[in-house]
Please model this.
Amino acid sequence: MTVGDSQIERRWEQLHVWGPYGFLGISVVLGVVSADPHAAQARWIAGWSLVGVAVLLQLWWHATRFRRPDRGRTPSWAGTAYYVVRWALAFALTWLNPFFAFYAASGYMDADELLARRWRRLGLLASAVIVAAAQTGGMPFRSMLQWLLFAVLLAVNTALQVGIAHLDEQEKQRSRERTETIAALRQALDENAALHAQLLVQAREAGVADERRRLAAEIHDTIAQGLAGIIAQLQVVINTPDPRGAEEHVDRALALARHSLGEARRSVHNLAPVALEHDGLPEALQKTVTEWGERTCTRAEFTLTGTAEQLHGEVAATLLRIVQEALSNAARHAHASRVGVTLSYLGDEVILDIRDDGTGFDPLTVPARSRAGGFGLDGMRARAERIAGSLTVESEPGLGTALSARVPLVRHDT
Model:
């Protein structure tokens, strides 16, 4: 309920409480002024006695109204009795003086609160009888013309009051519906606020989980791959009787260790690949492919098509990590003799193709990643999808493997 509605409700409450007192006071003043000073003493005594009873009735109802929890706003037996007795007093006073019809008009004002719905129109009709009689000239009627005039005025008063009561009921119904709608909207807003808070928590948790996966992938692509390469070189040293060959593999292991240390430091700083610190993506891929080919004694070629552009750091890092993972898988599983990497700039997207002539595999039978294994295809696909890209795999046993990553071309912020 708005502040304006509260003020209107409070004023109606004051009118229902003090209105009958005011109408009775007006009726008394007008009745005394218009009364015949030579009227019989019994008429004066009856009039003042009825006024006294009316005042006592109002005081009783005033006290009863404020003792009730609903403060007289809903029909009750006490309210019905008060309405009937007040009507009888108003009828008797109006019989003595027509100006007491003002007091009878109180019945128009509070019939909806004092009478049950099935008796409400009857109460309005009873009040209209007194008002119409006063408008006709007072009771008793002394001619047929007064009776006819009374009938017409009664019909008019009744129609007006019933119409007003109907409109008032409709307004109250709309007010109730509006209150229910506001309550429903408030509840919906509260639920939306709770849902919004829950979504924020879930988004925060999802962001934390995604960042953990990204960190795990970064560690795997830097330190883990470097250590794997070092282990491979040292194993060759152990199994090589030629001191010169062993020294060459030791040098490679040392180079890998230094490279991995640089990657680790860089990852701690901002998790960006060292290869991209001073070079663009094509240059970084060229160096990565060349170094990998020399380290694994595999023929590896890099090809650039289209006009190279400076990519956003996250896009460039993602493509570089995909190539590193693919080359690592080719060395460990494919036993390929030739690997080709192609980077293509095609307007609004970048395509990275990696092909080898290794043993190949059935993509439908690839086992899920284990704790001991690398990130593999799942990791590469997750990386591509993280930047709104995709990864497709084509492979058959004995026919090699082809990977294709398509990502949006997002330029570097200048």
In short: The two ends are 54 Å apart (CA to CA). Confidence is low (pLDDT under 50) at residues 370-374. Strands lie at 299-305, 338-346, 349-356, 390-395, 401-408. The CA atoms of residues 308 and 345 lie 6 Å apart.
